[in-house]
Write a structure and sequence with these properties.
Helix content is 13%, strand content 31%. By secondary structure, it is α+β, with helices and mostly antiparallel strands. Cadherins are calcium-dependent cell adhesion proteins.
């Protein structure tokens, strides 16, 4: 209820409220000020409401006091049960965990007011499974109640946990949830073979790595706790077989490690042991985490090819052994029980020259050709052995034959066999060191002896000194040598080896006398001079000089002839007038333009002056003399007529001269002329086709060519009319 101090109870004041729920959830009596709730309130939805109250004059509706604010608080009652909002719950705990091991925690929520009474105080308890697990009544932590949890026996449990408010007192509300607890695995179970013996069989022809069989040890654990490795415990089995682990199935794979022999042993007992890879030290007292079984492997028989004994053969033979001599014997036997006879042969591709033969029954190797160790010191051949009654059973081996050396090659002087000395060499000077090559290779090593050949025993120029290390030195015996008197000395040397038998050879050392400087460095030897003299005799040198002189004279004659011809041509070309075609790009003025083409350009080759009319007549001093003489009589004509007649007469003279002289080339053949094309009615204007007698040509068509060719038509038509008149 709200009440104003100015209210005298006469009903003159009216009370109003506004704010949250005013008029809907809460209503007020305007006269008394009593506030009533119109519906049931829920504290869990809204804990309080804020409203404002106002006292007004009933008649004027004027506020009598300032508006005041007040709060309506909803008081809690225990009307909400505890709820497990995070369910369903799933937890896990390792097997064999000790009592009191924490598994997980559950939490229940109560919507009631925790600050008012015990409505929100929750306690926990186990409804189902209380023998295996317990729950803390205040915290909700679930713990193990026993220590013998075994995953292999039961791998999961379901509990029902109850939460009660009012601290478990009478009248309290409660809620429950189901908790699933999974028992996780630990490595507490050792591997065990289901059988104590396994039997397999394999052929003796099985290659290395061939699988024999598979065995598996069972392990009740799961995951990585079942990972195991396998071992072969007995030495014999470990030598012949190998065991490995299949990572997916955890099976033991037994394979062949070495070739098996049925004839040697037919049954093998292999002890295989399985061991856990991940052993938990907490459970070692439970027993050994390993187990063993016996794998019996039976070897079956197989028809095998012959076997060589020993498998690789090395033989030796003297290189001087005679044909058919025994080199050695190869031996192969059939390893099978029937011991079939063996036949031998040589692979032809390894003995292309048929140096060796083999007895196909005994395997004896003999010589088919004479040997030479210096040509080939070793021979490698392949021998085949096959069963006589089954040729498909073939084996082969490599036979290496070493050729033992025999002293059959004499020693020889090693290159170079030449030496040089200075002319001023002193007595006792070492000029050359001799070494020897011998194709033989005695087992005790080489030993060579050096002496001068008997024909050089009385030599007064040089002496030989045996150094005793398979070399010898050549020294001078006198002072000074003259290459003009003798420039080459030949010194025969006898070399003997140590045998047996001792062989010898004589080699010649060539000693040349050379000119040297003050330091003893060789400058020149007579060898070059002798070579030149031997290559070119005096007669050959004279013949070479004569040939060179003749070539020079011919070149001079050719040059003189060319100069003479060039001078003759220049004298003739001084009066040479060649045709010139002058090209203009300007267009004429039509039929009335009679000066469109300047004829003076045609005379520019010989520097003709322009012919001008005057009292003295045209100036012709630059023309050739024969043209001047002819043109003196024509000066009486007009200047234009004189210009055309002189030009016409000059061209005719040159054409006639060119036609009659067969020794000169047609110079105008090198000129370039414009040509209208094959369809033009006009013929070529070149003077190449011009005949000496122009009366045979009809030039009347030139008058039909238009004003551009008017002067050309006048030039040829005037001359043509004069010839007809004559």
């Amino acid at each position: 209820q709200i009440h104003s101090d100015s209210d005298e109870g006469d009903g003159s004041i009216k009370y109003t409220i506004s704010g949250e729920g005013a008029g809907t959830i809460f209503i007020i009596d305007e006269i008394t000020g009593d506030i009533h709730a119109t519906e049931r309130l829920d504290r869990e939805e809204k804990t309080f409401y804020t409203l404002r109250a106002q006292a007004r004059d009933r008649l004027t509706d004027r506020p009598l006091e300032p508006e005041s604010e007040f709060i309506i608080k909803v008081q809690d009652i225990n009307d909400s049960e505890p709820k497990f909002l995070e369910g369903p719950y799933i937890g896990s705990v390792p097997e064999l965990s000790p009592i009191g091991t924490s598994v997980m925690k559950v939490t229940a929520s109560d919507a009631d007011d925790p600050t008012y009474g015990s409505s929100a105080r929750v306690i926990y308890s186990v409804l189902e499974g209380e023998k295996i697990f317990t729950v803390d009544s205040k915290t909700g932590i679930i713990r193990t109640a026993v220590a013998e949890l075994d995953r292999e026996t039961q791998d999961r449990y379901e509990l029902v946990i109850k939460a009660t408010d009012m601290a478990g007192q009478m009248g309290g509300l409660s809620g429950s949830t189901t908790v699933t607890i999974v028992i996780t695995d630990v490595n507490d179970s050792p591997p065990r073979f289901p059988q104590k013996m396994y039997q397999f069989s394999v052929s003796e022809s099985a290659a290395v790595g061939t699988p024999v069989g598979r065995v598996k040890a069972e392990d009740a654990d799961m995951g990585e706790n079942t990972d195991m490795s396998y071992l072969i415990k007995d030495e014999e089995g470990a030598e012949l077989f190998r065991v490995s682990t299949d990572g997916d199935s955890q099976e033991a794979i037994i394979t062949v490690r070495k070739p098996l022999d049925y004839e040697n042993k037919r049954t093998h007992n292999v002890v295989v042991e399985a061991v856990n890879k991940h052993v938990d030290p907490r459970f070692v007292d439970l027993g050994s985490f390993r187990d063993q079984t016996i794998v019996r492997v039976t070897v079956t028989d197989w028809d095998e090819p012959p076997q060589f004994r020993p498998p690789a053969i090395v033989l030796e033979v003297q290189e001087d052994a005679r044909l058919g001599a025994l080199v050695g014997v190869v031996n192969a036997v059939d390893p099978d029980l029937d011991n079939a006879p063996v036949r031998y042969s040589i692979d032809p591709s390894t003995d292309l020259e048929n140096i060796f033969n083999i007895d196909f029954i005994t395997g004896a190797l003999t010589l088919g050709k004479i040997l030479d160790r210096e040509t080939a010191g070793w021979h490698n051949i392949t021998v085949h052995a096959m069963e006589a009654d089954n040729p498909s059973q073939v084996s082969k081996t490599s036979v290496s034959i070493r050729i033992l050396d025999v002293n059959d090659n004499p020693p020889e002087l090693a290159a170079p066999n030449e030496a040089s000395i200075c002319e001023d060499a002193k007595p006792g000077q070492l000029i050359h060191t001799i070494s020897v090559v011998d194709r033989d290779e005695p087992q005790t090593g080489h030993r060579f002896y050096f002496t001068l050949a008997p024909e050089a025993a009385n030599n007064r120029h040089f002496k030989l000194w045996d150094v005793k290390d398979n070399t010898a030195g050549i020294r001078t015996q006198r002072t000074g040598f003259n290459r003009q008197e003798q420039n080459v000395y030949l010194l025969p040397i006898l070399v003997v080896d140590s045998g047996p038998p001792a062989l010898s050879s004589t080699g010649t050392l060539t000693i040349r006398v050379c000119g040297c400087d003050t330091d003893g460095t060789i400058q020149t030897c007579n060898t070059t001079a002798y070579v030149m003299s031997a290559a070119l005799s005096p007669g050959a040198l004279i013949a070479l000089l004569v040939c060179m002189l003749i070539l020079i004279v011919l070149v001079l004659l050719i040059l003189a002839l060319k100069r003479h011809r060039k001078g003759h041509r220049m004298s003739e070309d001084e009066e040479d007038m060649r045709d010139n075609v002058i090209k203009y790009n300007d267009e004429g003025g039509g039929e009335q333009d009679t000066q469109a083409y300047d004829m003076s350009a045609l005379r520019s080759l010989y520097d003709f002056p322009e012919v001008k009319g005057g009292d003295s007549g045209p100036d012709l001093h630059s023309l050739p003399q024969w043209i001047k003489d002819q043109s003196q009589g024509d000066l009486k004509d007009s200047a234009t007529a004189s210009d055309f007649s002189i030009f016409r007469s000059y061209i005719c003279k040159k054409v006639e001269h060119a036609d009659t002289d067969l020794s000169v080339p047609p110079y105008d053949s090198f000129q370039t002329y414009a040509f209208e094309g094959s369809s033009s009615p006009a013929l070529s204007l070149s003077s190449i086709h011009t005949l000496s007698n122009t009366s045979e040509q009809d030039l009347s068509y030139l008058s039909d060519w238009g004003p551009r060719f008017r002067q050309l038509a006048g030039l040829y038509l005037v001359d043509h009319n004069e010839e007809e008149g004559s």
